[in-house]
Design goal:
This protein is an alpha+beta fold. Helices cover 37% and strands 19% of the residues. The protein is built from seven helices and seven strands; from the N terminus they run αβββααββααααββ. The chain has a three-stranded antiparallel beta sheet, with helices on one face. It has a two-stranded antiparallel ribbon with strand order 1-3. Strands 6-7 form a two-stranded antiparallel ribbon.
Amino acid sequence: MGCLRDHSQYFRACHAAQRTRVDLRFNSQSLLVAMTDRPSIGGRAWPSVILKDPDHEYAFALWCNSTLGLLCHWWSANPSQSGRGTNTVSGIPLISTLNLASLSSGQHRTAKLVFEALTDARFLPFDQIDEDPSRALLDHCLLVDILGLHPRLCEPNGPLAILRQKLAAEPQINGGKKSRVVFTADGENGVDRDHR
């Protein structure tokens, strides 16, 4: 009976609407953090993220799925295999992230609006971050609309575009993958990497 009580407490403690990847395949996956419509129990591959303030979840999700969030995750990840970066559940809090407590309530409201506006956006895998218009839009919304940074950071040949190009060229991220994803009206197709 004591064991069941311990499990019940554990499951309540892990009950959340936000998940993060611990074993990320950069050249096939496009999200580091995802949110569910209802709180649920996270698993080994997608453990729960429980923040002190639930209103911070939207800014956290935007940050983690942005170019800068990917950079922080990639930098701290264990390069277990080509194209893959692994973190441990206990290591997740050690990954550099946006200081969510420093954002105003207005910035958190804007983050929620941006998150909701991008809910149906299709993101390319991280190895194609340099050609992903949804990721570029997310970066602009996060850095300019929420954080109030200068729009030049997000211009087509600006610093974020250059960072996305460098990340896409990083062997640990692209893993030598020979194909790329192309979105179509019917879904997505894989094509030869050299075919653009």
